[in-house]
Amino acid sequence: MAAARDKFGRPIVVVTGMGIVTSLGAGKDDNWKRLTAGESGIKTVTRFPIDSLKTTMAGAVDFVTVEPFSSTSLSQRLAEIATEEALAQSGIGSKGDFPGPMFLAVAPIETEWPQRLEVARAVPKTDFNIIDYLATCSEGGKFTHFHRRFTFGSVALHLAETFGTKGSPISLSTACASGATAIQLGVEAIRRGETDAALCVATDGSVNPEAMVRFSLLSALSTQNDPPQGASKPFSKNRDGFVMAEGAGTLVLESYDAAIARGARILGVVAGCGELTDSFHRTRSAPDGKPAIGCVRKTLADAGMEPNQIDHINAHGTSTPENDKMEYLATSAVFGEHTASIPVSSNKSMVGHTISAAGAVEAIYSLLTLEHQRIPPTINYEVPDPAIPFDVVGNKARDAKVTAVMSNSFGFGGQNASLILTREPA
Amino acid sequence: MAEKEVWITGIGLLSSLGEGLDAHWEALGDKRVNADETRLAPYVIHPIGPVSFDAQIPKKGDQRQMETWQRIGTYAAGLALDSAGVKGNQEILSRMDMIIAAGGGERDLTVDMAIMNADAQGKLPPALLNEKLMNELRPTLFLAQLSNLLAGNIAIVHGVCGTSRTFMGEEASGIDAARIAVARIGAGQSDIALVGAAHNGDRGDLLMLYAFGDFALKNQHSSIWSRRNNPGFAIGSAGAFLVMESREHAEARGAKPFARLTKVVADLARRKEPGAVTKSLQAMWPKLGVGDDAVLITGATGAEPATSEERAFLEQHPGLAVRAPGTTFGHTMEAQFPLGLALAALSISRGKLYPGNDPAGFEVEKPGAPTQIVVMGVGHWQGEGMALVEAAE
Q1: For position A369, what pLDDT does the model report?
Q2: Last residue of a domain, one of A150, A166, A200
Q3: A85 and A132: one domain?
Q4: A146 and A156, same domain (yes or no)
Q5: CB count, 10 Å around CB of B22?
Q6: Taking a C-beta distance cutoff of 8 angstroms, is the pair B363, B332 a contact?
Q7: In chain B, what are the domains?
Q8: In a domain, A351, yes or no
Q9: Residues A265 and A210 in one domain
Q10: Using the beta-carbon criterion (under 8 Å), do B212 and A188 form an inter-chain contact?
Q11: Looking at the structure, do residues A39 and A171 belong to the same domain, yes or no?
Q12: Structural domain of residue A146, as residue ranges?
């Protein structure tokens, strides 16, 4: 029998189902085809007026509609679509009965502007204060559904009821690392022997005016609006910020034993995960890259692997001037001379930054890379940044022998998390 | 593999009653309540007590980057680290895990109200919303609002830098934060963790969500157990943080426990069915393995039907000495369960249960030193959980 435990004696955690939605499309097939063809999902925003905005493009998922629109409802719908695909592939449990807990990466939730204004229009005065407004909020139960929609636990409640996950579902936010954290929580639960399976879901439907304004006010977004598909250019000298995007990714994790016992097809292994907090600044990374270096090292140690065993890096690669530079610094510090021989690519060049979903979306792309032995390109790589001498897989997909991928997430609030995904158990 | 014992070795409390363990113990003994029925009348709130944030957040620049909920949390986190004797201990802090339960931070209500009034007066064509937001939102406000930035601020101010995870989802997030921390320490995935939450109840913008569901207590403050005719919760203010660590880790550094945190369980009852909360609590109770003469501190909110269903469960265990901090502190949402854990550990370490605060007499007195205290959480809308806090041997 193959190794059911890793070299540290822990249950091996495998992936048996994956589902994905991004601005490139719904489903793994569509996503992989378009991703490896170097297509961009970034477009000029049409969902709401773009007057007065400095950034006017995003990787919005416009082919999925929810009525009435809210980012929370869209996040929920994207998560449903991705999860249905992952469960169908995995074949685990039965409809509405998933045999394990759920870990959900989701953006923080608030009442959104269309709903705020709907209430405002119902206030029986045209010059009102917060107390008048609150009275209308609770009047006659007319807006009760907004409580159900905009509690932080609402998306998890809905998904838990729909898919029949067990126990208390955990909603989490570690900013841009959220998707990776959801996977990490699932891995830890299986390693503890608490469960044989975990549903790790990450979703983000945040392209709305206020979210774009907020990131814009932090000068985090690219303003190269024309053409929109050229805006996200990780590792290029002329990169100027990230592009907001929407999407969802779901992974069904199982212990190797449980997956084999039910005859499931194993899509890959989560060999290691690690995280390390950066306390330098609220939005900026430590200039010496130490926390990111520590994060990558912890992840290698968790997987029991050496740097030279990593043969591809699915980069965080946001396309912000600072983050890309720091990622190179951290990577080269850990991988030394081996750095130059690791092909690196950033999916964000095509799908944009799916924020809360990114860690899971990119883990799925990493697993597809392992499956197809083909590395998706980093598009818009026309003017390489000489300060970032990565072996960037520029503009065209590259066939390569890939056995272990490191997927990085380095986000706001000092949130660093990395994953190592492999084809076979070590 | 045997699970490791988890000790609570640090407690940090800042609330409407003030700051620190002695002040809280004294106020609980005096049955003091700091409720405000006028500031946001008709809504009852519990504002944070007087505090000088400088004592735990020395840099004014850091304070400016935060809104009140983050200051409350960062302050209480500092108190917990002090209490555990690890403040400033780089070696430990650099590998300390952190799990925070958080909602969202303060909005700029002035900007929001101006936009909503403009709209009501027909002066807000759709395109103008962007312009108003671009011109009027403070750039750094976003960082004061983001759920994971309470953890971010604790890392920056106190140097807690091992790992950082923020759970969301109202009351349940506080239960799950404790549950995951205990599971990780028990299994050897973590040696020491900072767990907690913060909530600022003095917020009109926050009341909005609860007003939609008509959950917010109006007019007069009363005991949680006397609200059946005027149900609801008074939003409270608290930062409640705990340092949890494996017994080995604590002993190796000579740290003394307040109490042992033996077990945390959680559930998501399907509340569409009446009685689901009562059933969920009944199903969790045997997992703790405690007798019917224990102490139980509940995060009961006063919102219906949750509180009545919870009471139905409690009435099946008439020997329990019950305490509902919601009467005293209000409902501190994500912080309510960590607050319950803190009060349980404090009571065990002081060798005494504080008096009930309930004219209706549901909270009975219990003399002697408590050895087992159950902490219970029932969310106002979703999420249930229980923990067992015991005297450490």
Answers
A1: 98
A2: A150
A3: no
A4: no
A5: 9
A6: no
A7: 6-105+146-390 (3.40.47.10)
A8: yes
A9: yes
A10: no
A11: yes
A12: 113-150
Asked whether A391 and A362 are in contact (CB, 8 A), the reply is no
Q: E strands, A153-260, where?
A: 170-172, 197-204, 247-255
Shortest distance between the Cα of B114 and any Cα of chain A, in A, equals 9
**What pLDDT is stored for residue A1 in this prediction?**
44
Q: Pseudo-torsion of CA B262, A193, A277, B64, nearest 10°?
A: -50
Give the CATH number for residue A346: 3.40.47.10
Residue A33 forms part of a structural domain: yes
Flag whether residue A128 sits within 8 Å of chain B, measured between CB atoms: yes
Q: What is the domain count for chain A?
A: 2
Residues of chain A with pLDDT > 90: what percent?
Answer: 95
- Asked if the Cβ–Cβ distance from A127 to B116 is below 8 Å, we say no
Task: Give yes or no for A279 touching B (CB within 8 A).
Answer: yes
Domain-ending residue, one of A98, A128, A150: A150
Q: Which of A176, A282, A295, A299 to mutate to test the interface with B (most CBs of B within 10 A)?
A: A282
CB contact under 8 A, A146 and B180: no
Report the complex ipTM: 0.98
Q: Which residues pair with B387 in a beta bridge?
A: B264, B375
Q: CB distance A138–B155 less than 8 Å? A: no
CB contact under 8 A, A276 and B266: no
CA dist B221 and B233 (Å) reads 9
Residues A48 and A141 in one domain: no
| Chain B nearest CA to A186, separation (Å) | 11
Give tens-digit pLDDT for A167-216.
999 999 999 999 999 999 999 999 999 999 999 999 999 999 999 999 99
Q: What is the pLDDT of residues B155-194, one digit of tens each?
A: 999 999 999 999 999 999 999 999 999 999 999 999 999 9
Q: Does B257 touch chain A (CB under 8 A)?
A: no
CA of B103 vs chain A CAs: smallest distance (Å)? 7
Q: Are residues A133 and A83 in the same domain?
A: no
Assign B142 to helix, strand or coil. helix
Examine the pLDDT at B50 and tell me if it is beyond 60. Answer: yes
Tens of pLDDT, residues B250-290: 999 999 999 999 999 999 999 999 999 999 999 999 999 99
What is the length of chain B? 393
* Residue-wise pLDDT tens digits, B292-347: 899 999 999 999 999 999 999 999 999 999 999 999 999 999 999 999 999 999 99
Residue numbers of A annotated as active site? 176, 316, 353
- Could you tell me if A119 and A258 lie in one domain? no
Q: Which pairs from B58-66 meet CB under 8 Å and 24+ separation?
A: B59/B157, B62/B153, B62/B156, B62/B157, B65/A282, B65/B140, B65/B143, B65/B144, B65/B153, B66/B144, B66/B153
Both tokens assigned to B122: 């027909």
**Binary contact (A172, B167; C-beta < 8 A):** yes
**pTM for this predicted structure:** 0.98
Percent of chain B at pLDDT exceeding 90: 97
Q: How many CB pairs under 8 A join A and B?
A: 254
- B114 shares contact with chain A (CB less than 8 Å): no
CB A100 within 8 A of CB A86: no
Length, in residues, of chain A:
426
Mean pLDDT in residue range A380-407: 98
A278/chain B closest Cα distance in angstroms: 7
Which residues in chain A are closer than 8 Å to B165, comparing Cβ atoms? 172, 174, 181, 185
